[in-house]
Amino acid sequence: MVSFFVDAVREGWYTFTLRERRNIAFYILGIMIYKFGLEAFNGSIVALATNRYDYDAMRTKTPAKTFQRVGLMVGLNQACQCIGSILIAPLIRRFPSRIVLSSAVLVFALLSALLLIIDASTGGTFAPASFRDHHPDHDFHYYGRYNTDGMIPVYCIAGIAYGMVELMRRIIPRDIVGGNVKKLRHLDALVHIFYEVSGTSGAFCTALALIPFFGNNYSFLITPICFASAAIVWFFLTDETPPSRDTPVRERQTPYIKAVTVGFWLFVESIWTGARIIFTSRKFVWLVPGYSVALYAHRYLENAVAPAIARRYLGNAAWSQIIVGGSNLGELLGALFVILFTNLVTTPVPWLRLDAIMLLATWYLPFWRPVGQVSAAWMAAATFIPISFGWAAGDVSLAAYIQATLARVESKTQNVSALGAVMAFLYSTYIILYAITSPVLGSYIDRVYAETGGSENGGNIYAAIQNVASVQFTIISGLVFISTFVPRGSLAFNPKMLYNENLDGETGLQRVSSDDLRK
Fold this sequence. Notes:
With 519 residues, the chain is mainly alpha-helical.
């Protein structure tokens, strides 16, 4: 099995040209550094907010609104990512991708340092050495003395840069290898493997070393350093895509007018172009449940369900990163299988169906009664592996399909690329969905906890987890599974092609009209 995998990776690696291999090496190195810092940042912030809101409720003798506020914080962060993702579509037609990506990560590095500065300036310190082996459940006196709600705007602003980076890393593979779907599958899977190796190690390192040693108010000290390092590495990427020769009239306006009118116009045009391409074509409409809704389920599992289980089931918010580490390991294995079976499974359809089935594994959670020990966190992490395995395999193969298909389609719109607009719309759809549901479901979790006794009388969230995880994911499972039968040629168990379209070769861009897209 190992030799088979090594041979598959080696064969895939040598399908790239020397120039492509150079760019891939820089891109993967940068994304591994970025992902390690990102896991430390997101894991620490969610655990920090969870603990602070519980601590505030205990000190003020009021019902906890922990997951309502954490859901609101993460949801608004996702909404701000929407702005960042939309800004990418016009920016990639005006500036080199490496400049846009490096600049976004540098801004993210500066914003991630803000909470460190705020905590230090309000009296925050590292966690006491006596807390490292066993942290008291409700003692967080070493945190900075600032209003916990102040974390929300800081985390939101960071979301703009986060959204830009996340969308850019879905577009850059096309810039590196062009529209060859076989190369894109290899590259996306290869990137995903190293991305999740770094993510898994980052999650475990955060939960087992950084948070116990520094406390989750300082455990993301490494994040600004990692982000700045990633920006430097990505700066060495070479640009393969020549700039557009078309110069819209709006770009020749004065700087002030251009900043106001073009910014607003391109914001609307990005959304409109992506929506038009998707909703006027059977070929693309299934991507909304297949990509956006599936991505929402995966992120809700990691960002909402895992912290709720860690804090309310196990009593330690930091252990959510152990659970997320298991999820990242599942993503790693999913990407590996895409590489291993890239010639056998040539469309994303079988992987998406597997993703839909794996979501049903969450039905054990409402009936699980773990003890508050770290071994239970490892058990939860193990059960998250197959769930994230299915999602990652579907995400990698579907991303390659989208990139290859839209590499052959160029909208008549001059100001935004078809790929950028579609990815912006899909990513924004997921973000808006998360931003709306996360605080609402978080409030429901808090209400169930309070009604069953709260922190004073042994409250639990078993009924809430049944609805927000098991029932919700069953509905999403059905949507994703049904969507896989929408593309023409998808009725087979393992279709060889969709729409009889061979995506394995390089193809020049085609200009298509709205009528063409409906076919």
